[in-house]
Amino acid sequence: MASSSTESETIQARWQAIRADCPTAVHLLAVSKGHPAMAVRELAAMGQVDFGESRVQEALPKQQDLADLSGLRWHFIGRLQANKVRAVVRAFPVIHSIDSQALAERTSRIALEENKSPEVFFQVKLRDDPAKGGWEPDGLREVWPELQSLPGLKPIGLMTMAPLGLGPEERQSLFHECRTLADKLALPECSMGMSGDWKQAAKAGATWVRVGSGLFGPRPERLV
Ligand SMILES: *Cc1c(COP(=O)(O)O)cnc(C)c1O
Fold first, then answer.
1. Would you say the CB of residue 152 lies under 6 angstroms from ligand 1?
2. Closest Cα to atom 15, ligand 1: which residue?
3. What is the pTM of this model?
4. 25: closest CA among 213, 154, 201?
5. Which residues are registered as beta bridge partners of 104?
6. Are 38 and 216 in contact (CB under 8 A)?
7. Residue 162 pLDDT more than 80?
8. Which among 77, 132, 219 is the best mutation to test ligand 1's pocket, defined by most ligand atoms within 8 Å of the CB?
9. Which residue's CA lies nearest to atom 13 of ligand 1?
10. Ligand 1 mean position to 193 CA, how many Å?
11. From residue 174, how far is each of 117, 163, 166, 188 by CA, in Å?
């Protein structure tokens, strides 16, 4: 499905507005899940390199459609199921959603088999949230020596998601906690903040903000 010219102008204008507001030290990850390859093209034409997808079965055909564009960097941001690890390791050089030790070990083993070395973020859960995976800070610190030394993975940062319904101040302190924990572990990157709260996340020390609907418009279906 091709975007109409007004639609693409809108995507490009949103991208420019966010870029203008976003500190240069903060990377903008364009979350294209739920949107067609054509929309990715619109932003790639502006110089956007990093795109995020959360479902393998949606991402692979899109990547194929876009194979003529060199230099796109694909980030996997969705919940990673054990049986999808190989496909993700093959197709994504960056993975934001390693959320358990078993998954980290499996990804490490498969990365070695596939001769890949993905950059990975470990997902942390800083508030109770049954809907989300990830380590609590104490749990992460406990397994850190093992996680850090898994072969085949390049640990670069922490990723977190704020639970729905947090007020702006609570969000701000959650983002600060993530930054502090990353600093303690000597991890440079923090992937946090989405369309609704990326500015707060950037202020609190995010180095990657993950923006979907704020760039591409509303998704046709609710995708997580
Ligand atoms: C969908 C998604 C985003 C982007 O969400 P928007 O609110 O559309 O910006 C960011 N991070 C993750 C993990 C997502 O699944």
1. no
2. 224
3. 0.95
4. 201
5. none
6. no
7. yes
8. 77
9. 77
10. 8
11. 30, 10, 10, 17
Share of the chain above pLDDT 90, in %: 88
Closest CA to 54 of 86, 97, 11, 85: 97
CA 141/CA 182 separation, integer angstroms: 10
| Residue range 38-50, pLDDT digits in tens | 999 999 999 999 9
Between the CA of 97 and the centroid of ligand 1 the distance, in Å, is 12
pLDDT at 190 over 80: yes
**For 131-154, how does the pLDDT look when each residue is reduced to its tens digit (9 = 90+)?**
889 999 999 999 999 999 999 999
Cα–Cα distance measured from residue 55 to residue 4, given in angstroms and rounded to the nearest whole number: 25
Say if ligand 1 is within 6 A of residue 14 CB.
no
CATH of domain 5-215: 3.20.20.10
40 CB-side CA count, 13 A: 28
List the chain domain ranges: 5-215
